[in-house]
Amino acid sequence: MPVLAQWRQQGLFRRVKDAMPSVTNTNNASICCGVWSDQHGITGNSYFNERSGREEYMETADLLLAPTLFQRAKKQGVKSALLSSKKKTTTLLSAGADVILSAETPTQDWVKRLGPAPDIYSREINYWLWTAAIDLLKNRRDLGCLYIHTTDYPMHAWPPGAKESKEHLARLDQLFGEAAAAAPDAAFLLTADHGMNHKTLCWDLEKACAQRGTPIRIAISAERDRYPKHHRGHGGVAWIYCNRPAEIDAVAKNISKLKGVEAVLSRSEASKRYHLMASRIGELAVLGDRDTVFGQLETESEALPPEYRAHGSVHEMDVPLFIHNAQAPLSSEEFQYNWQLAHWLYR
């Protein structure tokens, strides 16, 4: 990736941590709002809505409790655009954006300009999205801020060394260069919402607890979203809701004995350690090791195939951060987490 190599040499680069759980919605909200989850309220891709008594997706703007980058920009008279391969990002972060585009569900105007968007489960949808971004950089000079979010389907599908993965990254790198050439006065801020690892084992915690004499109300995989082909809804963090408070300790004890469970934290411990909104996580937080995820299965556990890749745990927290062509006096020491990427803008 020669363009990123140049940005690293000429600009600001640092390896940073993401926010937990290391899933898309939590980190997109953190990056867009520039705050921890305990302020913006997005604790995963899914959560347990205690009012409705159902597991629901965390992808609507009413769940976001902190101002977005777009709202901050608007207060300073700056127009902005939100572009995402995935529709869920546009429904979650749309507040304040003047232009909103989802490559998953593009308008007919965009289809006429760029042709039909590729399938959401493809590398090519990211190329289409960046082509749309370059179009805006060239033709909408009234826009002062663009937020561009690609899909991680290629990273779920192929390991870094695979031919398909290298081709994808090389093409993205070319598009970064084209975007910079289209707007030479623009600063480019780039980071990731999470890392990715191969996983070997999945637990269905509801079934596992029932088999051990401590049935629970529900187990929520923080990674579950509308894109099951990515990861089957399995992730490295799960929220546990018990039937009665008196059973919490026994449930925690049984779960902690399961192979691959790295930690079982109380609600207060998890919210304090990972800056999470306590009212939107379970009574227990279960963290998997580097090889283990949690989700719904036909049996209590399942060995995962060699091609399976997912995230969500502390083992996917390491991500890169680049800032290229920024005129502001910035120091790499200011950036320890990915959510700090743009928190200094439009304040």
Output the strand order for the largest sheet.
10-11-13-12
**Major beta sheet, specifics?**
4 strands, antiparallel
Number of strands: 17
CA-CA gap between termini: 32 Å
Protein structure class? alpha+beta
Helix content: 25-40%
CATH superfamily of the largest domain: Alkaline Phosphatase, subunit A
The rough form would be described as globular
Task: Explain what the structure shows.
- With 347 residues, the protein is of the alpha+beta class.
- The chain has 2 domains: 2-195 and 317-340, Alkaline Phosphatase, subunit A (3-Layer(aba) Sandwich); 197-310, Domain 2, Phosphonoacetate Hydrolase (Gyrase A, domain 2).
- It has 13 helices and 17 strands.
- It is globular.
Quick structural overview:
The chain has helices at residues 2-10, 24-33, 37-40, 69-75, 87-93, 108-114, 124-139, 153-157, 163-182, 205-211, 228-231, 248-256, 267-274; strands at residues 12-17, 46-49, 54-57, 79-84, 99-102, 143-149, 188-191, 197-198, 201-203, 218-221, 237-241, 261-266, 284-288, 292-294, 301-303, 309-310, 318-324. The protein is globular, with a radius of gyration of 20 Å. Helix content is 33%, strand content 22%.
Please specify the SSE layout and strand pairing.
Layout: H1 2-10, E1 12-17, H2 24-33, H3 37-40, E2 46-49, E3 54-57, H4 69-75, E4 79-84, H5 87-93, E5 99-102, H6 108-114, H7 124-139, E6 143-149, H8 153-157, H9 163-182, E7 188-191, E8 197-198, E9 201-203, H10 205-211, E10 218-221, H11 228-231, E11 237-241, H12 248-256, E12 261-266, H13 267-274, E13 284-288, E14 292-294, E15 301-303, E16 309-310, E17 318-324
Helix pairs in contact: 2-5, 7-9
